Amino acid sequence: VQLQASGGGLVQAGDSLTLSCVASGSTFNRYHIGWFRQAPGKERVFVAGVSRQGGSTTYAESMKGRFTISRDNVKNTAYLQMRNLKPEDTAVYYCAAHNVGFEFRRASDYNIWGQGTLVTVSS
Fold it and tell me: Over the chain, what HEC string results?
C-alpha cells in the first residue's frame, strides 16, 4: 500500500482542519494507521492512531479532545480532524501504516509513510 496525505494549509488559531490520507491498493484494511507530526527543528512525534477496522483509537495526551482520527475502509482513506488549532500545532503531518501487533505510538513500528502535508497555524 502507498499513502498520500493532503489537506494541510495556513489557518488561524482556533480554526479547524481535516487531513486526509488516501491509500492505494486493496489491502488498506489490513493496516493500522497513525498520524505523526514534525515541527521545525523537532523530532517526529505521535499524534493519533486507529486500528485496522477503526474500532480502536489512541491519541497523544496533548491532542485528546481536539483531534479525532477515523478511517473509511471503503474509500481507502484515513482522516485526522483537528479543532481549535494552536500555533504550536504547526508542523508537517504524516500518515503511516503498519500491520504488526497493536502498538500505535512507536514510529519505528510503521513501515509505510506518506509524504507529509504542512499545517501552519497563525496566531
Answer: CEEEEECCEEEECCCCEEEEEEEECCCHHHCEEEEEEECCCCCEEEEEEECCCCCCEEECHHHCCCEEEEEECCCCEEEEEECCCCHHHCEEEEEEEECCCCCCCCHHHCCEECCCEEEEEEC
